Amino acid sequence: MSKRLGKGLDALITSLAIKEDDKVVEIPLSQLRANPYQPRKTFDEEAIKELAESIREHGVIQPIVVRQAIKGYEIIAGERRFRASQLLNKPTIPAVVRSYNDQQVMEIALIENVQREDLNAIEVAIAYQAIMNQFSLTQEELSLKVGKSRSHIANFLRLLTLPDEIKEHVSRGTLSMGHARALAGIKDDEKRKELAKAALTNEWSVRDLEQAIQQIEVKGKNKPKSKPVKRDPYLEDAERSLREKFQTTVRIKMNKDKGKIELSYFNRGDLERLLEMLKALA
Predict the structure, then answer these.
(1) Choice among 20, 46, 57, 79 that is catalytic
(2) Residues near 48 by Cβ (< 8 Å), separated by ≥ 6?
(3) So what's the pLDDT on residue 229?
(4) Distance CA 225, CA 223 (A)
(5) Helices assigned H by DSSP within the chain
(6) Taking the domain 17-97, which CATH number applies?
(7) How sure is the predictor about 228, in pLDDT bands with cuts at 50, 70 and 90?
(8) Residues 87, 52: contact at Cβ < 8 Å?
(9) CA 82 to each of CA 105, 126, 187, 263: distance values in angstroms, whole numbers, following the listed order
């Protein structure tokens, strides 16, 4: 484990290991509840079923670790084993009882999962924010506790500023952490959504997305500043309809008796997609 972990945290994680002289007790599943600080919100159902089959054949080889609560026990480590045992309708599960305070429980849950890479990027970000809020920690203090750089913490926390639909894609894995970081650098939510849709539709790599963002930023810098002009609501509705159809930035410009429609593309693949759509309309 990293040397940058908070003082005593190495020992805290090590304390989860089951020792020969530990007293293992059978605890009714009905007396157990999930760790309230568990950052992982989704569990792989197939993996739980496979674990259940292993438990059916060999039993629970490694006892879970719990702490006593007001009513029954809270699971500190071993929620997958607990869920698998529930599938098998087992009455009890072997466990070792430990004494941890709330902060220790939260830190253990986060560090265990992050180090095993069981969490998706959004779950990690939510967990980091929860610990900071719960215990009034700065990013620097949290970085020392979890053995990560401050920039690593900051990058994950920035993901929480993304629109919910983008965070959902990151949680499902349809957009990667790299895509999310690139989108987090954009301030405009509508622009973020447009680029996210384009990335999904065209199966952009992170590099493709970064190039698209770069092109937009260059255009923005070169654009002369002018006073905002009140636009025709009809044109705005038409642009919105075309944006949804072509899944890209659309701009309608009109000067007296003539006008033009501009469709933005971000790379060659995107251009070819738009050309195919326009040919189909011809």
Answers:
(1) 79
(2) 80, 83, 84, 87
(3) 61
(4) 6
(5) 9-14, 45-58, 79-87, 102-116, 121-135, 139-146, 150-158, 164-172, 177-184, 189-202, 206-222, 233-246, 268-281
(6) 3.90.1530.10
(7) low
(8) yes
(9) 17, 24, 43, 54
Place of tokens 């084993």: 81
SS3 for 101?
coil
In the chain, the amino acid numbered 248 is T
d(CA 43, CA 83): 9
Specify the pLDDT at position 1: 37
Domains 17-97 and 116-220 share a fold: no
Neighbours of 92 (CB within 10 A): 15
The structural domains of the chain, with segments of one domain joined by +, span 17-97, 116-220, 229-281
CB burial readout 12-37, b (16+ within 10 A) else e? bbebeeeeeeeeeeebebeebeebeb
The per-residue pLDDT for range 149-158, each reduced to its tens digit, is 888 889 999 9
Query: pTM of the full predicted structure?
Result: 0.54
* pLDDT for the residue 199: 92
pLDDT, tens digit, 9 for 90 and up, residues 231-282: 678 888 888 888 878 877 788 887 777 888 888 776 676 777 788 888 888 7
Quickly tell me which residue has 């020392």 as its tokens: 144
Contact 121, 180 (CB under 8 A): yes
Spatial neighbors of 208 by CB under 8 A, at least 6 apart, are 199, 202, 266, 267, 269
Q: What type of residue sits at position 113?
A: N
Going across the sheet that includes 25-28, the strands are: 25-28, 92-97, 64-68, 73-77, 32-33
- Is 79 catalytic? The answer is yes
Residue whose structure tokens are 């569990």: 43
CATH class of 116-220: mainly alpha
